[in-house]
Design goal:
Layout lengths: L5 E5 L4 H17 L2 E9 L2 H6 L9 H16 L8 E9 L1 H12 L3 E5 L5 H7 L2 H8 L4 E4 L2 H8 L1
Parallel strand pairs: 1-2, 1-4, 2-3, 4-5
Helix pairs in contact: 4-6
């Protein structure tokens, strides 16, 4: 097995994604690896239909970059100075951007959370994690929803 030197950790700023980021940051700290934290602003047809009046798309990236930085400082203040972190914000389709970033940056591992939806919700919404697993150029470690993990332990 090759040494893990670079980890990609996607986030959507949700509480759920914090579990995946925590795992990636802790793993990177123990392995002395770099973490690339990626936030993808999903701007498909649904986004444009929902946001009729919006600033130019170019204005989204600086705003979301500031949001990502604040998200990390607010949620991981004790770890972010102990791990080499690169923050990236992109526009696009989350699962495609994640896979493309993994290829471009030659990451050794993707660590991400999943909602763990099943049944109709999964069929209608799909799963970013599932799509990433099916296309990724490297191993993907999927961290389950916190609520499910706690329920199984009880």
């Amino acid at each position: 097995m090759n040494r893990v030197k670079r980890i990609l950790a996607p986030t959507d700023f949700s509480n759920l994604s914090r579990a995946g980021l925590r795992y990636a940051l802790d793993m990177a700290r123990s392995l002395n690896a770099e973490v690339i934290i990626l936030h993808v602003v999903a701007v498909g047809d649904d986004w444009f239909a929902e946001h009729g009046e919006f600033a130019p798309v170019r204005d989204l990236l600086p705003d979301q970059t500031r949001t990502l930085d604040k998200f990390l400082r607010d949620n991981f203040p004790q770890v972010i100075n102990l791990v080499e972190i690169r923050q990236k914000v992109e526009l696009g389709v989350p699962h495609l951007n994640i896979v493309e970033m993994a290829e471009r940056e030659k990451v050794d591992l993707i660590v991400m959370s999943t909602h763990g939806r099943t049944g109709l919700g999964h069929m209608l919404l799909g799963s970013v994690a599932e799509r990433v697993v099916g296309r990724a150029p490297c191993p993907v470690l999927v961290i389950p929803a916190i609520e499910r993990t706690i329920a199984k332990a009880a």
